[in-house]
Design brief:
74 residues; alpha+beta; two-stranded antiparallel sheet; 4 helices; 2 strands; Phage tail assembly protein; Phage_tail_E/E
Length: 74
C-alpha cells in the first residue's frame, strides 16, 4: 500500500490485483480512462473524485500506480 497526500487528505492506494487490471481493460477506452478507473478502484474513490483533482495531484497518483506496475523495480 502507498499513501499519497492530496491536499489535506491522505489517499491510500492498494497494490493492483490482476482483476483490477483486467476490469480496466474490459471497460475499454483510452489509457487515461483506464488509469482513472484503476486509481479510483485502488484508492476506494469514485471516478468523479479522481477526475476532479488538479492535474498535479493526479500525476502524483499516476506515479504511485506506475510504481506498482513497474515489474523491473522488484
Amino acid at each position: 500500500m502507498k499513501e499519497i497526500k492530496i491536499k489535506d487528505e491522505i489517499w491510500q492506494m492498494h497494490a493492483p490485483k490482476v482483476r483490477t487490471i483486467k476490469m480496466a481493460d474490459e471497460n475499454g477506452g483510452s489509457d487515461m480512462v483506464k488509469t482513472i478507473y484503476m486509481i479510483a478502484a485502488l484508492c476506494n474513490k469514485t471516478q468523479d473524485e479522481v477526475e476532479n483533482l488538479e492535474f498535479k495531484e493526479f500525476m502524483s497518483l499516476q506515479k504511485a500506480l506506475n510504481d506498482f506496475l513497474d515489474v523491473r523495480a522488484e
